[in-house]
Amino acid sequence: MRTLDDLRRSLDEHAGSAPDGFGMVERARTGAGRIRRRRRILQGAAAVVAVLATAVAVPVALRERASAPIAPAAKPYRTAEQYSLTLAADSAFVVPWHTLDRTRQILSVANAAAVVADRPEEVGGNTGAQVVAFDPGVFDPADLRAGEAVTVSGQRAWYAAALPFDYATVLPMVDTTPIRMNVPAVGWEGASGVWIVVYRPQRSTPAASTRAELLEVARDVRLRDTLETVRSPFHLGWLPSGLTADALELHDLAQLAGKSVSVAFGDGTDARALSVMAQPAAGDRDWETIRPELGEPEKVAGYDVWYQTEKASGLVPGEGGSVTSVVAGTCHLSISVEDRNRITEADVHRLLTGLTLGKCADVSTWRALL
Amino acid sequence: MQFEEFAAARLPALLGYATLLSGDREQAADLVQEVLTKALLKWKRIGGMDEPYAYVRKMLTNEYLSFLRRRKMTVPIDGDLCDESHAERDEELWELLRGLPRQQRVVIVLRYYEGLSDPEIAEVLTCRPVTVRGYASRALATLRVELPASFSIATGVR
């Protein structure tokens, strides 16, 4: 026989042999670490590209150097819901996530073979990169231009082994603090003064292959002449006065058995006044935990709705705010309000009444956000 | 709490927990990677919770259980986890632990590594505390762990 102390000691010792987590956060952001469920859902990189051409979202972004601000363009190049940054149709890479805000378009580019592999870490080759298109006047290219001159698809470009960037997670519903990093990057100026930067977030010295791999990704990046408008599973027929889309995060969660869309609406001073997230109801494991403690729903526009101003079921509205959970057709919605005196429960109900929903898991039913 | 803050503070704990569940460093890394990605995508919800770690740990537990279901695997054997300095006694215990049914293994790790109470474990596994005690009782018998009398009374394990 042995004692409980023996058991605890053994557990502690073996837990101590756990792998280190280096790079996991970055891989979580890029989705490169996804292994299972992909083949079943993705069914080929071409389908992914087609889906993602209409989708938007990525939790990773670059920001221009705060020390060298540049005046924004007089006329906005695009709105937050518009995009022009894509990959070549025949690219060996895919874009699991794509994010837009008022000044940037961000693609998380992954190796298509790795995305559908059972064990992507064994696929090898180019793992992809982050691609950011900065709207005209937003990016300061001085540091980049001090790097090595290279050519990307016939265009003059530069490679910098350690380009200083403020690296930040960009989520529509969450403000995050950027972290200054020196990243290997390739960049060039595209049409209309848009700067495109292809980089790989990493803390260590770039591998010898990094330069070539970034250039390989860069060759597949395309900047369309015309702007496309993002489509979403929800179309809002009404919004509180003064709000427009500030940031969008639309995941093709092929790796995660579904898709989700998050949109933050702001008014220029409050960028997160109202946030709406939609995801397929099927497979929402969080809901299994949340639902039992919510009590009976009220019916609003035919949907089951739970309006919360206090913590419940692990959902915690911000101070003075509210969270509304909605079961609507094939979707679960979460509507977050920062100031419930400004955007009231009645406003949320009005928003729901004006809502038109497609099928959360079927992008062919999606339409313009507004 | 921001995702980066959470990851910086809790990633080692999640990896240790995943290693004990899976018994394999590579699978542990896979499990944590998947859960981190999912957690990031729902961070608005999770980051606002009182105890994000508890929630993510539950996600990890579910992922471990579903991982095994999907791949129809038994708990793997990985001798690399035991270095030569480990006593033979510990190796035997570790082998027994790795051979436990997965629910029993989860209960043992949550109880004696994570320090959760039976009601807390029941919440993680979405079952009743009495079921947790049943898993624990069977697991401890398999592991041939001798329980002090006071412990048996306090926890209900016989």
Structural summary, described in words:
The complex is a heterodimer of chains A (370) and B (158). Chain A has helices spanning 4-15, 24-30, 38-42, 45-52, 112-116, 142-145, 210-220, 285-290, 345-353, and strands at residues 2-3, 60-63, 82-87, 93-101, 104-111, 128-134, 148-152, 155-169, 179-189, 195-199, 221-229, 231-232, 234-236, 244-253, 258-266, 274-280, 298-300, 303-308, 322-328, 331-337, 355-357, 367-368. By secondary structure, chain A is of the alpha+beta class. In chain A, a hairpin with a 5-residue loop joins strand 9 and strand 10. Chain A starts with a strand and ends with a strand. The model of chain A is unreliable at 32-73, 173-177 and 253-258 (pLDDT under 50). With 158 residues, chain B is mainly alpha-helical. Chain B has 9 helices and 1 strand; from the N terminus they run H-H-H-H-H-H-H-H-E-H. Chain B is globular. The N and C termini of chain B lie far apart (41 Å). The model of chain B is unreliable at 69-86 and 149-158 (pLDDT under 50). The interface between A and B is large, with 58 and 63 residues. Strand 1 of chain A pairs parallel with strand 1 (145-146) of chain B.
Mean pLDDT of chain A: 78
Considering DSSP H and I runs of 4 or more, what fraction of the residues of chain A is helical? Answer: 10-25%
Most extensive interface, residues per chain? Answer: A-B, 58 and 63 residues
What would the average pLDDT of chain B be, to the nearest integer?
A: 74
Q: What percent of residues of chain B adopt helix (DSSP H or I)? A: over 70%
The total strand number of chain B stands at 1
Strand percentage of chain A lies at 35-45%
Compute the separation of the termini of chain B in Å: 41 Å
Q: How many alpha or pi helices of chain A?
A: 9
The share of residues in extended strands of chain B comes to under 5%
> From the alpha-carbon coordinates, what is the Rg of chain A to the nearest angstrom?
22 Å
The major β-sheet of chain A equals:
15 strands, antiparallel
